[in-house]
Write a structure and sequence with these properties.
This protein is α/β, with parallel strands linked by helices. The protein has 6 helices and 9 strands. It has one domain: Vaccinia Virus protein VP39 (Rossmann fold, 3-Layer(aba) Sandwich), CATH 3.40.50.150. Helix 6 links the parallel strand 6 and strand 7. The relative contact order is 0.13.
């Protein structure tokens, strides 16, 4: 089956049918070639309803989780977004299609370089900056961020990320230990933090 057809089926069967309603998110997921971000041994499963290994004990999240996390940020296209955990660059590419600018941080140098290459070869690098560093500390140089997306689980939202979240901004982060976590959608309003559980999830721990 052609990649474009697999993308279309993924959007309809895995995303729209399961409650993803943000048309901008659906359009981005339909446009971005996920297969270009998946390592060659797993490329045939690029649009499967599962995560896939990308090396170094890390994975590219299942399409539904990428879409849900992006939808929780409620992006309009004018925002600066921080992503913690660049991985192979796919989630950053989706965020880059939805926001004005994306700063994505990856702690593993080899994966940071992979993300850069993947974003460049797919023409997605113009508004995305890949940084190798400690994502739990955020990136104060470009703060505040209207959106923060964290692709690793923590016991709670790191204080540095809360500090760098703009007034009225939103963060999505897996919270909890072990293999049973809550994907929390957090909002900063009037200096107060509120959150809701978007779904259950499984992510590698934030290090």
């Amino acid at each position: 089956m052609e990649w474009a057809e697999q993308r279309r089926m993924m959007v309809e069967r895995q995303l729209r049918a399961r409650g993803i309603r943000d048309e901008r998110v659906l359009a981005a997921m339909d446009e971005i070639p996920r297969e270009e971000f998946v390592p060659t041994p797993y490329k045939g499963a690029s649009y499967a309803d599962d995560p896939a290994p990308i090396g170094h004990g890390q994975t590219i999240s299942q399409p539904y989780m990428v879409a849900l996390m992006a939808q929780c940020l409620e992006l309009t296209g004018a925002e600066t977004v921080l992503e913690v955990g660049a991985g192979c660059g796919y989630h950053a590419a989706v965020l880059g299609a939805l926001a004005s600018r994306v700063i994505t941080i990856e702690r593993i140098p080899e994966l940071a370089e992979t993300a850069r290459r993947n974003l460049e070869k797919t023409g997605r690098a113009d508004n995305i900056t890949v940084i190798c560093g400690d994502g739990a500390k955020g990136w104060p140089e470009c703060a505040p961020y209207e959106g923060i997306s964290v692709a690793a689980a923590a016991e709670g939202a790191p204080p540095a990320l809360i500090e760098q979240l703009a007034e009225g901004g939103r963060m999505v982060i897996p919270v909890g230990g072990g293999w049973e976590q809550e994907l929390r959608a957090i909002r900063k309003q009037g200096g107060e933090i509120s959150s809701r559980v978007a779904t259950w999830c499984r992510f590698v721990p934030l290090r």
